[in-house]
Amino acid sequence: MKRTVPDQKAAAKRAVLRALGKAKRAADRAGVKLSDWEDEFLGSVADRVKTYGRAFGDSEKGDLNAPLSMMQAVKLKEITKKAKGEAKPVPKRYGFRKK
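Given the sequence above, the corresponding structure tokens read:
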């Protein structure tokens, strides 16, 4: 029996769509209110990935074989963390120091 190698682009596309759906469902289940921007981001990125296979067209923003740009992936991770209730660490601010 001959095994076929799964298409990597299609697998990446399915993985991104699954991650977008998980983030949306996790926020709904936890009762976390996503901002209008975050809600629109999840919907528009999912639509573009379904239609075009990727959500960006500029080669400077990431690998053209990847379905999400680097910044879109970062934002998706931030939304997922927000939905899970994981707080972002507060940056330490030292202000101005005397020499």
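The chain has a mean pLDDT of 85. Try to locate this feature in the token string yourself.
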